[in-house]
Structures are given as structure tokens and as C-alpha cells.
Amino acid sequence: MRQVKHTHTLIALGAVTALAACGGSPDGVSRSPFSAFGGGSGIAAPAGQALASETPDGTQSEIIAGLLTRRSILPQGPYTQVSDAVLAANARAAEADLRAATLRAEARSRNWLPTLGPQVSLTSLGAVVTSLVVEQVIFDNGRKRAERDYAKADVEVAAVALSQDTNDRVLDALTLYLNAGMAEARAQVNADAMADMEHFAWIMDERVKGGVSSTVDRMVVQQKLNQMQADMASDLEAAAAARAELAAMSAAPLDGVAGIAMLPDELAAEPLAVVKAEAEAARTVAEAKAARAGFLPGITAVGNVTEDGSGAGLTAQADQGIGFGTGAALAAAAQQAEAADARVAQTREDVARSLRALEGELASLRRQEAQTGTLAAGADENYANFAAQQKAGQRGVTDVVGVFETAVGLRREAAALPYRVAQVELKIAALRGVLVDGDKI
């Protein structure tokens, strides 16, 4: 009896396999049916690398290949020290999402193969009948292919998200680094000027003691000294906070790292937000095709094996029933493609606006940097003249202190502007996704 049952099973499997062979794999690639049970050729990224341009179905992804060829514009020096330290400590949550999407795509890449499963039913006589059902889709209006396209686009979306996440992490770290450097530079200006201000405060104390000046003048000078000390303390606290936050996201200490690096002005890389929108559009189109195919009838080869015998045949059915709203549902599926294209165009416009705004801000900051440097030099010269006149008895101390305060303020602004310029340059680079080498993600 067992010999007969095995013969029936083989007959049913052979019938379904023969029917499947007539249609072949939807993408025209000859594969072994045993790949459905783990014998396929799914391609995964090598250990330590999350991105791989070859997808589980054996095709090449242009989007991921483009991400892999991106090169960081960060020159060797302080920027790369910070970047390497924070990437070494990256939790890489986006990478886990990418690996999950890759596994889903690998599963979908085999959806053209037969499915095998048990079926249990209760007859009208109260007897339980068990059977083994084998199904193979022969024609499905492109639904299986659309499902594979959706899974592939899902991997591409996750890959772009990982690239964005990595670039954003480096940008956050470099922003903290520059904030710390800017605060330290401003504090250093105050530290260098503190001796002169303390000297003026001492002069006023002596003049008040000698009855030459009033206590009001001494209070004015003392207040300016106190303000300078408070500004320096605030700058040092801000620098310490930024350094501590940077240390929390770094795998190596960065206390000794200092300086600003020059970045290239012309960046030609496609902004990552646009690349992601294009991948999402491809995913939406694939979803719409799968939804539309669900309303159309398909042909499936079915083999059924029971204790009493076996059989094979063809069935024609649609996944979605046809009702009064079917027309609208089909129209909605078709409209999804247009909506996806519109979202890509809108994203491209939004990114272009952001880039133009950042480029305008960068040009303004560079102008301010040059202008403030000139103003600071002029203020220092003016202060030197006032100080010489004060020593000669031609100027009062309060007059000199006022000019000195203006000079110190311009020095602080001149010290901070290079860091603000560097921050905007890094924002543009992050928007274009060129802070990290693609093959190192």
C-alpha cells in the first residue's frame, strides 16, 4: 500500500513539474526546483559589508552600485579621525533593516517555484481526509514578477536609508566637533584679552583710591570684565558639553583632535533623498502592478495526493474577487505610478531648494568671514591708538575700554566664522551623501 501511495505522489509531483516547465521561470532563468528548499543562489553581502550590488535574484541593482561607488570628500586629518571613531561605534540599526529586506527579497526571488503543503478536510460522513497539495503558478499576469520587483526595490530603499543614516551620523559627530572647536576658539580670544581688561580694572581701582575717578567709572569697567569672564566660562562649558557628547558616540578618544579641513566646492553626487525617492517610486510601481494582477484571472497547476489516489489539473482564478468597486480599485492601482513620479519630482525640487539655501548661506558666511577679519584688524588698530593716547593722558580709561570691548567682540566673531563655514560645507556634503565611502558602509 505504501508503495502505491509513493507512486501516486511521484505522479502528482511529475505532472505539476511538467506543467511548470512549460511556463518556465518568469524571468527566463533556468533554476533547479530544489533551490526552493535552500539550494538557490541567493547573494548576500560579504561579512562586514552591508551593501552588495548583486541582489538575491542574481541581477544587478544600479542604485546600490551607485551607492558603492560614492567616495568621501573628507581629507585625511581631523575630520577622518572623527568619522572613523564614530563609525566604529555605530549601532547600525539601519543595517539590520537592510538585512531583513535582503532576506525578504531572497524569499521572493523563489516565488515562481511550486508550493507544497498539506490539506485536511472533514467529509459529509464525518471522516477526516488528508491530502498533499502541490501548486505551481503558470500564468499570473505578472504578479509574481511584481512581487520580486517590490522586494528588490525594498532592498534598495533600505540601502539608501543606511547610506543616509551613516552620513547623518558622521555629520552629527563633525557638527559636535566643530561646535567644540568654535567655543574653544572664542574662549581663547577672551583668555588672551583678559590680561588687558584686568589691567584696566586695576587702573580704575587706583584712580578711585586717589580720588581721580568716580566709583561709577570703576563699576562700568568691572562690569565689562565680569561679562568677559562669564562669556569665557560659557564658551568653555559649551565646548566641554560638545566634547562629552562626541565622546559618547565615539569608539576612541578625540580630545587631542583639533583643526578645520578644506572641502571641495563642486559636488556632483546625486542627493541621497532623491535616490531614495526613486527607489520608493519603483517599489510603489511594483506594488501597483501586483495589486492590478490580483484582479485578473491566472492559471495554476495543481497536484493533489490522498490515500485513495492522486490527480493533477489546471485552475483559473483571481486573487481578488470582482465587485462593484473593482474598476475604481484598478484605476487606483494605475494612479499609484503617477503619484510615485510626482513624489520623485517634488523631492527633487525640495532638495534643490535646500541646496540653493545652503549654498546661499555658505556664500554669505564666507563674505562675513572676510569682512569680519578686516573689521577685526581695524578695531585692533583703533584700540592700539586709543591705548597709546590713554597712556599719554589724552584719553580716559572708560573710552579705551569701550573700544577694546568692540575689538574683542569682532575677534570672537572672526574666530567663530570659519567653523560656521565648515558646518555648512558639511551639511551640503551630507545632503549629497559624500561623507563616507560607499564600500565602507
UniProtKB/TrEMBL annotation:
This is Outer membrane protein, adhesin transport system. Keywords: Cell outer membrane, Coiled coil, Membrane, Signal, Transmembrane, Transmembrane beta strand. The keyword Transmembrane applies. The lineage of its organism: Bacteria, Pseudomonadati, Pseudomonadota, Alphaproteobacteria, Rhodobacterales. It comes from Loktanella fryxellensis. Residues 330-368 form a coiled coil. InterPro entries: TolC-like. GO terms for molecular function: efflux transmembrane transporter activity; porin activity. Residues 1-20 form the signal peptide. GO terms for cellular component: cell outer membrane; efflux pump complex.
